[in-house]
Fold SAM-dependent methyltransferase.
Amino acid sequence: MIAPLLAASSRADAPVVVELGPGTGAVTAALRAAVPELRYLGVELNPAMADHLAARFPGIDLVRGPASVLPQALAERGLREVDLVVSGLPWQAFAGSDGTALVSAIAAHLAPSGAHTQFTYRWSRWAPPGRRQHRELQRFFGHVDLSPTVWPNVPPAVVYTATLPRPDGV
Ligand SMILES: C[S@@+](CC[C@H](N)C(=O)[O-])C[C@H]1O[C@@H](n2cnc3c(N)ncnc32)[C@H](O)[C@@H]1O
């Protein structure tokens, strides 16, 4: 999940990074350590988690609400393009038409050379909601890559990295 950020930071002075469902902030801390000058925006639904994040990272730009508010939150901040989206959102956030709208909105706001990364547990890839999530990524992005299994994570996890079509359509 950090590798696309490092690529983005080599292209932009202050890459715009959106984290959906930052939770306890484990990934947030890694992102900030990797690229201290990043322009971070988090969106967290759980008020207790949001309070924890605000205390752990004073001054953090955090929206307290569902990921579906992302387009409005970007507009309010004058952010037109996002270099990296990091999502730890569960399946439920991608269910039904709201989920389709969310994936579509992420693709619409991604910089042409940006990346959308989705963390998921390894076992869940083959469950119907996990397969639906993969199909939705394939629908809105030109390329969807799957990482090797991250065995040290408990439980073991994989990361989808979705990127837009290149201008030449490849
Ligand atoms: C698997 S946890 C994230 C793990 C995170 N990387 C960490 O280090 O703790 C999923 C997070 O997504 C949040 N969440 C769930 N549904 C959401 C939604 N619709 N919009 C925003 N956040 C949501 C949960 O409150 C939770 O904090």
About this structure: The mean pLDDT is 90.
